[in-house]
Amino acid sequence: MMSFATPVSRYMTCEVIAASDMTPLPEVHRTLGERAISCVPILDAASRAIGVLSRTDLLRLGRFETKTNSRGMLLTLPDVPARAVLRPGIITVGRATLVVQAASVLLKHRIHRVFVREDEALTGVFSTKDLLLSLVEARDPTPIAGLMSAPAYTIPLDAPLALAADRLTTAQVSGLVVVDPGGWPVGMFTQTEALLAHGVLSDSPVEDVMSPALVCLDVRTPLHRAAAAAHAAQARRVLVVQGRRLRGVLTGLDFARAVAGTGVITTAARSRAG
Question: Going by fewer Cβ within 10 Å, which terminus of the chain is more open, N or C?
Answer without folding.
Answer: N
